[in-house]
Amino acid sequence: MKFAVIVFPGSNCDRDMHYAVKDVLGAEAEFVWYEDECDLEKYDGILIPGGFSYGDYLRSGAIAATAEIMEQVKEQAEKGKPVLGVCNGFQILTEAGLLPGALMRNKDLSFICRNQRLVVENNETMFTSQYGKGQVVQFPIAHGEGNYFCDEDTLAELKRNNQIVFTYESNPNGSVENIAGIVNKEGNVLGMMPHPERAVDKWLGSEDGIRLFQSILENWRKTYVAN
Amino acid sequence: MKKKVKVYVSLKQGVLDPQGKTIESSLHSLGFKEAANVRVGKVIEFEIAESADLENQIHDMCKKLLANPVMEDYRFEVEEVVRP
């Protein structure tokens, strides 16, 4: 399985993401600079890393969401390929309209950087099948704008379709319903504020993130690799 | 003819504005106790060629980029360009 790690000016978790899928998971991974000529068709999964693309100008993720490469990301998402956006990647996915809602300033305005306990609300996605339902995992969070917001109709729809994948055990940033991560209706685009790619080794404080990447790989094998 | 456009973007009513709340409490501590419901927004200015479709164009820009309709409202003014 081959992953593309999309790199924007200001991305800073791209190497962590690359390390997680290449060195830890053992899959193939390549960096894709946002303005290089590249056909995303040749990748099996797309990873949009965290950071501060374009210095968070206008709104976090807003400028990156207008980059041409995002059109390709949309096409690949429509084909059902796994797309994972973490932190700024989540912000970019909401700004690009691939996921509903928006990420606002944290409720208490502070930038929060710490380990955070999360609950796996939905373990029936291609990203979480290796977790138990209700399992508590620990990933780091590091964001100033992770306060997930959506209107009531959207929230009802997220619940109805089981799109809420991760919630915070205790709410750090004011997100509605403690939401830490959601998938699209089709289940192949996941956006989340916490960093699974920084929780892939014991010496990092947690290796709970490995199962997320293993889930993607396992589901890809089930779908595309003949037994 | 060029026009000057000023777009005002603010958080929707009902959406918590922690920055506004913080500024409000600072105003209060400076003695400006009357200040209430402080909200923070942004102003984006640009110049653009006049056209019959200008208003629609600006609405389009606001919806696609300048404001995020999930959490923000916008309004705009179109003025003559005044050179100093």
From TrEMBL, chain B:
Belongs to the PurS family. Pathway: Purine metabolism; IMP biosynthesis via de novo pathway; 5-amino-1-(5-phospho-D-ribosyl)imidazole from N(2)-formyl-N(1)-(5-phospho-D-ribosyl)glycinamide: step 1/2. Its EC number is 6.3.5.3. Keywords: ATP-binding, Cytoplasm, Ligase, Nucleotide-binding, Purine biosynthesis. Part of the phosphoribosylformylglycinamidine synthase complex involved in the purines biosynthetic pathway. Catalyzes the ATP-dependent conversion of formylglycinamide ribonucleotide (FGAR) and glutamine to yield formylglycinamidine ribonucleotide (FGAM) and glutamate. The FGAM synthase complex is composed of three subunits. PurQ produces an ammonia molecule by converting glutamine to glutamate. PurL transfers the ammonia molecule to FGAR to form FGAM in an ATP-dependent manner. It catalyses: N(2)-formyl-N(1)-(5-phospho-beta-D-ribosyl)glycinamide + L-glutamine + ATP + H2O = 2-formamido-N(1)-(5-O-phospho-beta-D-ribosyl)acetamidine + L-glutamate + ADP + phosphate + H(+). One of its GO terms (biological process) is 'de novo' IMP biosynthetic process. Its main location: cytoplasm. This is Phosphoribosylformylglycinamidine synthase subunit PurS. GO terms for cellular component: cytoplasm. It comes from the Bacteria. It comes from Compostibacillus humi. The keyword Cytoplasm applies. It holds the Pfam family PurS. It is found in: Cytoplasm. One of its GO terms (molecular function) is ATP binding. Part of the FGAM synthase complex composed of 1 PurL, 1 PurQ and 2 PurS subunits.
